[in-house]
From TrEMBL, chains A, B:
NCBIfam families: PRK05692.1. One of its GO terms (molecular function) is hydroxymethylglutaryl-CoA lyase activity. Gene3D superfamilies: Aldolase class I. This is Hydroxymethylglutaryl-CoA lyase. GO terms for biological process: ketone body biosynthetic process; L-leucine catabolic process. Belongs to the HMG-CoA lyase family. Its EC number is 4.1.3.4. Pfam families: HMGL-like (PF00682). Residues 13-281 form the Pyruvate carboxyltransferase domain. Keywords: Lyase, Metal-binding. The lineage of its organism: Bacteria, Pseudomonadati, Pseudomonadota, Alphaproteobacteria, Hyphomicrobiales.
Length: 312, 312
């Protein structure tokens, strides 16, 4: 197996494919485990290095994620793949580490209402939980910390940078080398917010080497926000192939920014991603056709119509 | 009639609604003149001040634009409306001025192949034609100069900034007060190109007070490019309601950036547009339903699903 250095992206930017987690999660009809495994393998084959393959969560709350352990078992040893697993609690984090997840992403929400809705506790309690998790797992386990609703909350509206800083002040010093991801969970962040929050955070925590951003494309602002974060020094970006991830209860509230749109923009800017954009777009077409999927993104349709459109 | 000062936007940014021209133009089924007039009036009622109501062009080449003189006659006196008409030649420009168009936008393409395809002449010949037009119309006629394919050409690919500067060197000194619009005709421009080209142009021509940008959203980059141009000092942006303007020969090659997406982003950033975003989104829904339309944009669907989504 090719050794993978988790936190040193081999390209100018790293696009983290979260489709199999954030994208599949809201899809109603169960996607067979074998199909999930095949998608992960083919995503990796397009040049994506890191894929969030699922989450360790309550199967009752998120039935689509019930087979994450099986997916993990199948893809863990895939050469060149860094399989990331999302966890919302210490307990789930320990389970993921015990299941030999190559990388774990611990998520907590900055906004109290959203955190309570997800895990029935306050952000402070989730922060303490994260601290216990770090104390209980090996130092060498690659970890990402996702701060959800870092810009805006579906319940409480705009989130102030100060609330993010309070959490980072407490959590960043706990462990060196953790990747910090600020998430625009609702897609209502605007690019000037990206500038302000990442500008403030990177200045306040110069020791953090790896900043990441998680964009949703609800209002078409995904790429604008990514570009602003890129200019602030962020080099790791989440995306979902076919822009999957729409909320079934909010028609039009589309999902993550499409990975193929991200890759197309960066490659066009001369910023290498390591991704074969045309191959990713083809695979995204298949994901878009999954029963119950709510696809988004733009580049896919153009690349399909004009196979040469990617040639600069 | 309320006097309108053409080139002093009353808000932080001015969104120029080009849907009735760039958006309607590729629609096959003829939109009745009365419907066009009604759309222009209702667009104005949402707070849009300037609307490109059509073009003076060959009715054989663009039958949808054949009734622009009639639309112009009907809306010219609408209080608070600045009706802009696109013209590709001196002759059409003189016709538009004779028809008392409140503002004319002269378009020429930076790329020789695209200019030849549009008007069967070189960019230099079109530049000379523009010079003759300026000499032949009153000094007080508000004029915009559109440089199409300023970033990328459907035939020749990427356009170098030097080619834009050669044209601006010749055309900017001809007349003070002209608004200069750099157009991403294909939607393949990326935000770093926006920075470079507008950065260079605004530094080279400090006397130009009004810079504008025309974005297409083909690859989902519309808002990203607008944001980058905004940061370079641009304050006038074209958009089409419902993101109309897709090319019927390139499925997925969607049209202009949606005016409602533009307005949503700017208002959310605290940059005033004067537009009632919810009202514009409702009207855009009607435009999206026009037979033969290929709508785009994102905010519309979310605003429809969650009427409160616009509340910051």
């Amino acid at each position: 197996m090719t050794p993978v250095s988790p936190l040193s992206p081999p390209h100018d930017v790293e696009i983290v494919e979260v489709g199999p987690r954030d994208g599949f999660q809201p899809i109603g009809p169960f996607i067979p485990t074998s199909a999930k495994i095949e998608f992960v393998r083919r995503l990796k084959a397009t040049g994506l290095r890191r894929v969030e393959i699922g989450s360790f969560v309550s199967a009752a709350a998120l039935p689509q994620m019930a087979d994450t352990p099986a997916v993990l078992d199948a893809v863990r040893g895939e050469p060149g793949l860094l399989a990331q697993v999302l966890v919302p609690t210490e307990r789930r984090g320990r389970e993921a580490v015990a299941a030999r997840a190559p990388m774990i992403a611990y998520v907590l929400s900055v906004s109290p209402a959203h955190n309570r809705n997800n895990v029935r506790r306050s952000p402070e309690d989730s922060a303490a939980d994260y601290e216990r998790l770090l104390a209980g797992i090996p130092d060498e386990t690659p970890v990402r910390l996702n701060l959800a609703t870092a810009f805006d909350c579906p319940f409480d509206g705009r989130v102030e940078p100060a609330a993010v800083m309070v959490l980072l002040d407490r959590l960043v010093p706990l462990r060196a080398g953790v990747e910090i991801c600020l998430c625009d969970t609702t897609g209502r962040a605007v690019p000037d917010q990206m500038r302000r929050l990442f500008g403030e955070a990177t200045a306040r925590f110069p020791g953090v080497r790896h900043w990441a951003m998680h964009a949703h494309d609800t209002y078409g602002l995904g790429l604008a926000n990514v570009f602003a974060a890129y200019e602030e020094g962020v080099r790791v970006f989440d995306g979902a192939f076919a822009g999957l991830g729409g909320c079934p209860f909010a028609p039009g509230a589309t999902g993550n920014v499409a990975s193929e749109d991200l890759a197309w923009m960066f490659e066009r800017m001369g910023v290498s991603t390591g991704i074969d954009v045309a191959a990713l777009a083809d695979l995204a077409d298949e994901a878009a056709a999954l029963p119950g999927a709510q696809p988004g993104g733009r580049a896919r349709a153009v690349l399909r119509a004009r196979p040469d459109a990617c040639a600069a």
